[in-house]
Design goal:
The protein has 873 residues and is of the alpha+beta class. It contains 20 helices and 40 strands. Helix 15 packs across helix 19.
Length: 873
């Protein structure tokens, strides 16, 4: 026995002494154990301070356990965003216009391939920063209920059914098909009832009917959880029924986890916990707000608010067990991404960096852009002959690739503008001439960062930029820690330090130098920060937001500059807490450039042209997230008018009066009320924000090399006056499902160069029960001489069932290629549950018994065939 004892003791010493001599190992590092076992082991080894540190989007390393730092914030709305070169696909609203579920999944798969390639390259280089991780805060599946919302471009449109199907495909493409590891983790956002207005999103309370909540705003989220198995959900900024969404247990616990069976983690929108005690004022401080959010089910904050959880525990507002629950969810996500396993065990870790921004992916970007194009009008002028002698390309968006990228985008290495695409397609047989036609967005008075070429370090020298001093305190006292030349005047450090040896919070900065204007006149300067800021010109204090700072507001001053004269400038900033951001911008408010000079040039350019291609519309610099916009028709990133900018309308009328044939190409992320254009121009193409291959895609449609088949995922209204108040979240009077007026272009609309005849459909069953599924077979003949795609759409309505609320609702669709002269039997599955409605009396969904009418056609208004379907209990 003694002999065995010494042998056992020797073995114990061998293992433990060896571990100390090499590196101690823990069960959580053992890939043979389940993720659940490993997460339980790891979380048991963490102190309360370490647990809390892991609940922030910038999660620090825990060196004693070998846990590397990780930043949870990454974006991939339509390509890997904000991390250098990447393939940039059409903006999400353009992707929705494809109505192509398989293509959506393919694109998402490519995006996750590039995300993986980038992530592992960063790790090899020792980088673990923001926008470098594998937790992607996409897709945005909020319902685009109102075209005035600036962020509607990020969504899949106004319909819950279409949004759900495209969103599920996107999630599956991102998260991959490996049975053990995620390729990346997708985040469904923003949960819930979030769609503007932008300026009030940090304090807004959505008060809507339960029917609208469950029939419109929630179905896509439910589908992504139940069918897509999305592993992350982002809480919205706003309140719902008085409770902030990120602390709303009805949303995050009762619905998400208990009813829908969600297994992943919840992250707040950035600063949403901060909003609870500053904007909504539902809690007095971060101590109470953080506790309530975690208890409701918000596991991760994008912000620094959860540092207050230590005090929350001390005050008895939350238990360590509740914090441990959230940390375990977060650790499980990292385990399921393979972050604690050797790369050779994770197939996705083998993706080479060469997969990023590849030519194959560039070709897919062109295919998606082609499919997203929606032909709104064509009197026969399209497709254009390639034998035309002269084409005049005119418009502010014709030679502007920036506008094609939308928002939340990456950087394409070789984007193709519309002008480039047309030149490539029609030259050298056709002369291509160009004129901008109207002022650019910057000429219209949008705030811009002070250009480097207008900033000087000294009064007489040639070095451009401003002398920058960074301090380790918010009072700007003592010797600067860092001195350098900054060539920009807008900074968004977020939750990061601006430089080494500068603290994340409570630091200061000062910029000094000289400014020279490119033209004489009055300029309006705007200084905005999340903390303290002030601005001096010629030693005079002109903006002061220092002693009693107002957070999140831009302060302005007007100053007259003489051209090229240098004026002394000093700007100071102090970071108080959490998000660090400093923006110094300006806009020209003096005498505008001669507006007639643009139109004169355009009319002269178009004089001998056979056709004018006018690339107009708006810009993601005008519609988007919390933008500082001061133009007629726009407010805070949202829109107050649906019309084209007035100068574009005037120029189009002048070109029309000159006798020119005009093809209008619209770039926008939302609906435009182009009433005059529809009545007076021969052809209109809706191109959205079409990504890096947008120019080629437009040229493909213009030339006929691609036969358009995109369909509108939103209604194009005739006027903003046709809509209820933007602040009203109730659905009555909104979207094709509840709008009783006449639309300019209806939901689902889009033309083709082919003609399609719908023959009598066949129902697999005409009488079904509420849990059944049927198949509708629609024979469709392409009666033209050109191969083409058709998007077959099936809607349901009922006048017999008094409780059926929508005028009609989409319940099935399919995009299909039909060869010229051929007939294809298009098979579309229909589920009775797609007709369910929320019953507020029972707080349950119901499929009401009775007779429904199936409306089959090419849009929500272009109905070609009708059939009856009876549903019984």
């Amino acid at each position: 026995m003694m002999h065995k004892f010494w042998i056992s003791l020797s073995l114990v010493c061998f293992f433990f002494c060896g571990a100390k001599a090499q590196k101690q190992t823990y069960p959580f590092q053992n890939p043979k154990l389940s993720f659940e076992q490993r997460a339980n082991d790891l979380v048991s080894r963490l102190s309360i301070e370490e647990k809390i540190s892991l609940m922030h989007n910038t999660s620090p390393a825990i060196d004693r356990l070998g846990i590397p730092a990780y930043n949870w914030w990454n974006e991939c709305l339509h390509g890997v965003a904000r991390d250098g070169a990447a393939t940039v696909f059409p903006q999400a609203i353009g992707l929705a216009a494809t109505w192509d579920i398989n293509l959506v999944k393919t694109e998402a798969d490519v995006i996750s391939t590039e995300a993986r390639a980038k992530h592992h390259e960063h790790i090899r280089n020792g980088e673990r920063n923001i926008y470098q991780g594998l937790t992607m805060w996409s897709p945005n599946i909020n319902i685009f209920r109102d075209p005035r919302w600036g962020r509607g471009q990020e969504t899949y449109g106004e319909d819950p059914f279409l949004t759900a199907h495209l969103g599920v495909a996107f999630v599956k493409g991102l998260q991959g098909n490996d049975p053990k590891y995620f390729k990346v983790i997708s985040t469904a956002k923003h949960f819930a009832v979030h769609s503007g207005p932008e300026p009030t999103r940090h304090s807004f309370d959505a008060e809507i009917s339960r029917e609208d909540l469950f029939d419109t705003y929630l179905p896509a989220f439910e589908s992504l959880v139940r069918e897509g198995k999305v592993y992350s959900v982002m809480g919205a900024y706003n309140r719902l029924y008085g409770t902030p969404c990120c602390a709303n247990s009805m949303l995050l616990d009762s619905l998400l986890r208990k009813t829908w069976g969600f297994k992943g983690y919840v992250v707040s929108d950035c600063g949403a916990i901060y909003d609870m005690y500053t904007g909504h004022k539902t809690y007095p401080s971060p101590v109470e707000a953080s506790a309530k959010a975690v208890q409701a089910g918000c596991d991760l904050t994008c912000g620094g608010e959860y540092h207050a959880l230590k005090e929350s525990i001390q005050k008895g507002l939350i238990s360590e067990a509740e914090i441990t629950r959230s940390v375990k969810r977060l650790l499980l996500a990292r385990f399921r991404l393979g972050m604690f396993d050797p790369d050779d065990m994770v197939k996705y870790a083998q993706i080479p960096y060469s997969e990023n921004n590849s030519e194959e992916h560039n070709n897919l970007a062109r295919k998606v852009a082609d499919e997203s194009m929606v032909l709104l009008k064509n009197d026969g002028i399209l497709p254009l002959s390639k034998d035309l002698k002269k084409i005049a390309v005119i418009g502010p968006n014709a030679d502007n690739t920036e506008v094609q990228l939308g928002n939340y985008n990456g950087k394409p290495t070789a984007p193709i503008s519309i002008l480039q695409g047309i030149r490539s397609k029609f030259s050298p047989n056709t002369q291509i001439v160009f004129a901008q036609g109207v002022p650019s967005v910057s000429d219209l008075g949008v705030y811009e960062s002070l250009p480097r070429e207008n900033l000087f370090v000294t009064e007489t020298g040639n070095e451009t930029g401003l002398h920058a001093e960074y301090f380790d305190n918010e009072k700007l006292q003592g010797t600067p820690i860092i001195e350098k030349t900054d060539t920009i005047t807008t900074f968004n450090w977020g939750l990061k330090s601006p430089a080494a040896n500068i603290p994340v919070d409570h630091f200061g900065a000062r910029w000094t130098g000289y400014i020279a204007a490119p033209a004489s006149g009055e300029y309006e300067l705007m200084l905005s920060t999340n903390d303290r800021g002030r601005l001096y010109i010629n030693d005079q204090l002109v903006i002061d937001n220092w002693d009693n700072p107002v957070i999140g507001k831009g302060f302005t001053t007007k100053f007259f500059f003489e051209k090229d004269k240098r004026y002394k400038i000093k700007a100071e900033y102090a970071d108080i807490d959490e998000f660090a951001e400093f923006k110094l911008q300006w806009r020209y408010t003096g005498t505008s450039p001669d507006p007639d000079s643009y139109s004169r040039e355009a009319l002269e350019t178009a004089k001998d042209a056979d056709v004018v291609i006018f690339a107009g519309g708006i810009s993601p610099r005008l519609e988007g997230e919390e933008l500082q916009i001061h133009l007629d028709g726009f407010a805070g990133g949202d829109r107050t008018s649906l019309n084209l900018p007035k100068d574009q309308e005037i120029l189009l009328q002048k070109l029309k009066d000159s006798g020119k044939k005009i093809v209008l190409v619209l770039l926008s992320g939302s609906a435009l009320s182009v009433n005059w254009e529809d009545q007076n121009l021969p052809a209109i193409i809706q191109a959205w924000y079409p990504g890096q291959q947008g120019g080629n895609a437009v040229a493909d449609v213009l030339s006929g090399d691609y036969n358009p088949a995109g369909r509108l995922p939103v209604t194009f209204y005739k006027s903003v006056k046709d809509l209820p108040s933007f602040n009203n979240y109730n659905m009555e009077g909104r979207t094709y499902r509840y709008f009783r007026g006449k639309a300019l272009y209806p939901f689902g609309y889009g033309l083709s160069y082919s003609s399609f005849n719908y023959q009598k459909p066949i129902l697999s069953q005409s009488k079904i029960k509420k849990d059944d599924r049927i198949t509708v077979i629609v024979p469709i003949t392409n009666s033209s001489l050109r191969n083409g795609e058709e998007v077959v759409q099936i809607y349901a309505s009922s006048k017999q069932i008094k409780t059926f609320r929508p005028i009609k609702t989409l319940i099935g669709f399919k995009r299909v290629m039909i060869p010229a002269g051929k007939t294809v039997n298009v098979s579309i599955p229909i589920e009775a549950r797609s007709l369910r409605q929320y019953d507020s009396k029972t707080s349950q969904y119901r499929v009401y018994s009775g007779q429904y009418q199936l409306l089959i056609g090419s849009s929500s208004e272009d109905i070609r065939q009708k059939m009856n379907l009876t549903i019984s209990n």
